[in-house]
Automatic annotation (TrEMBL):
Similarity-based family: Belongs to the trans-sulfuration enzymes family.
Superkingdom of the source species: Bacteria
N6-(pyridoxal phosphate)lysine: residues bearing it: 188
Protein name: Cystathionine gamma-lyase
EC top class named in words: lyase
EC code: 4.4.1.1
UniProt cross-references to SUPFAM superfamilies, sorted A to Z: PLP-dependent transferases (SSF53383)
One GO biological process term: cysteine biosynthetic process via cystathionine
Length: 372
C-alpha cells in the first residue's frame, strides 16, 4: 500500500501499550512511550519535527496557544526567584502573563530597549535568568539587536528567549543569531489563514525537555486537528512571506509619498532608524506596517470607515489584509505618555498586509485616504 503524500491526522487521545512502553515509563521516560496525548501524539510530533527543521533547532514543541508556550517556558526557566529582563516594546499578552505570574513565584521584572543593547546591560540583575524580546515589535517594528543582546545575556549567565512571531523562520532564524529559545504564536504567520490558535517553542533538547514537562503538567498541549492545519499552512510559508513582504514594501513606499500621511513605520524605509540592522538580521521586512495620519484620530476613523479590502480586526499574519488602530486595540487603555513612549502617535493605524493583488490594496487605501 502506498503512503499518502499529506500528513496523516491521528486524533487518538490514548495509545495501545506494550511491554516496551511499560519499561520506558518505569525508567522515567514515559513521554517517549507515547501512551497519552497530553504528553504527545503522532500528528503533533510530526509537525514539531517540521518546526524544529524550519528553525534549525534540535527540538520544537507545539502548544495550545502562544501564551501556553510562554507559560511553560517561564515555569521551566525561572526557579528560585530568578528574574526576567523584558523588552519595553512587547505584546500585551506577554506583559499580562509576566505581571500576573512572576510575583506569585517570587520573581520580578526589569525592562530594556531591544534596539539599544546597552540598555539591557543596565537592566541585567544578578538574579536575571531570562531575557525576553521580539524580533520585530508591534506596531512600530523596532528591530531587536539579537546578536548583541544574546552576548550580554550570556555574559550575565542568563538565557534569551525571542518571540519571532512577526518574522517567522522565512525571514530570520533567531537561534542562528544567538538566541537560546525561539517562541511563536503559530496563530499568526505560521498558520497563516486566521483559522487556528497555537504556539511553538524551539531550541536545544535540554531546554525543550524542561518546557515539555510543564506542558504535560499544566496541560497546554496542542490539538492534533490544529497541528494538521498548521502543517498545511507551513507548506506555503515561504511563498506567503514573500508576498506579504512585497505588498508591505509597496504600500509603505506609496504611503510615505502621500500628503495626508505623516509617518510610516516599516523596516524597508530609508528613514527607518534601524534599516541597516534590519537588513543585517532579516531576509526581508515582513508584512506588518504602521503609519500615522496628519489629521490625527478623526482622520484615522474616517479611513477605517472607508476601507473595504482591509478588514478592521485584531490579530495578524493571515493571507487577508487587516487594519487596526493600536491605541484602541493592542495598546488599549494606555496613557498618552505610554503611547508616546511606544512611538504610537495620534492617527496611527496598523496594517497586517495580506497576499492580495498589490494594486487592489493600493486602490482601496487610495479611496479611503481621500476621506482622511
Ligand atoms: C498573538 C501573539 C502572541 C500570543 O499568541 P496566542 O497564539 O494568541 O496565544 C504572542 N506574541 C505575539 C507577538 C503575538 O502577536
Amino acid at each position: 500500500m502506498g503512503s499518502g503524500v499529506s500528513l496523516p491526522l491521528d486524533r487518538s487521545s490514548t495509545f495501545r501499550v506494550d511491554e516496551q512502553a511499560y519499561r520506558l515509563r518505569e525508567a522515567g521516560r514515559g513521554y517517549e512511550a507515547m501512551v497519552y496525548a497530553r504528553e504527545t501524539n503522532p500528528t503533533v510530533e510530526a509537525v514539531e519535527r517540521r518546526l524544529a527543521a524550519l528553525e534549525g533547532a534540535e527540538q520544537a514543541l507545539l502548544f495550545a496557544s502562544g501564551m501556553a508556550a510562554l507559560h511553560a517556558a517561564l515555569m521551566a526557566l525561572l526557579d528560585g526567584g530568578g528574574q526576567v529582563a523584558l523588552s519595553d516594546r512587547i505584546y500585551g499578552g506577554t506583559t499580562g502573563l509576566i505581571d500576573a505570574l512572576l510575583p506569585r513565584i517570587g520573581s520580578g521584572v526589569s525592562t530594556f530597549d531591544p534596539g539599544r543593547p546597552a540598555s539591557l546591560e543596565a537592566a541585567m540583575r544578578a538574579e536575571t535568568r531570562l531575557v525576553i524580546c521580539e524580533s520585530l515589535s508591534n506596531p512600530t517594528l523596532r528591530v531587536a539587536d539579537i546578536p548583541r543582546l544574546a552576548e550580554l545575556t550570556r555574559a550575565g549567565g542568563a538565557l534569551i528567549l525571542v518571540d519571532a512571531t512577526f518574522v517567522t523562520p522565512a525571514l530570520q532564524r533567531p537561534l542562528e543569531l544567538g538566541a537560546d529559545l525561539v517562541w511563536h504564536s503559530a496563530s499568526k504567520y505560521l498558520g497563516g489563514h486566521s483559522d487556528l490558535i497555537g504556539g511553538v517553542l524551539a531550541g536545544p533538547r535540554k531546554l525543550i525537555s524542561a518546557c515539555r514537562a510543564w506542558r504535560t503538567r499544566a496541560g497546554g498541549c496542542a490539538d492534533p486537528d490544529m497541528a494538521w492545519l498548521l502543517e498545511r499552512g507551513l507548506k506555503t510559508l515561504a511563498l506567503r512571506m514573500r508576498a506579504h513582504d512585497h505588498n508591505a514594501r509597496g504600500l509603505a513606499t506609496w504611503l510615505a509619498a502621500h500628503p495626508k500621511v505623516s509617518v510610516v513605520h516599516h523596516p524597508s524605509r530609508a528613514d527607518h532608524e534601524q534599516r541597516a540592522l534590519a537588513s543585517e538580521l532579516m531576509r526581508g521586512s515582513g508584512g506588518m506596517l504602521s503609519f500615522e495620519l496628519a489629521g490625527g484620530d478623526p482622520a484615522a476613523a474616517r479611513v477605517l470607515a472607508n476601507l473595504e479590502l482591509f478588514t478592521e480586526a485584531p490579530s495578524l499574519g493571515g493571507v487577508e489584509s487587516l487594519v487596526s488602530p493600536p491605541a484602541r486595540m493592542s495598546h488599549v487603555g494606555q496613557s498618552d505618555a505610554a503611547l508616546r513612549a511606544a512611538d504610537i502617535g495620534p492617527g496611527c493605524l496598523r496594517l497586517s498586509v495580506g497576499i492580495e493583488d498589490l494594486d487592489d490594496l493600493l486602490q482601496d487605501l487610495e479611496i479611503a485616504l481621500e476621506h482622511a
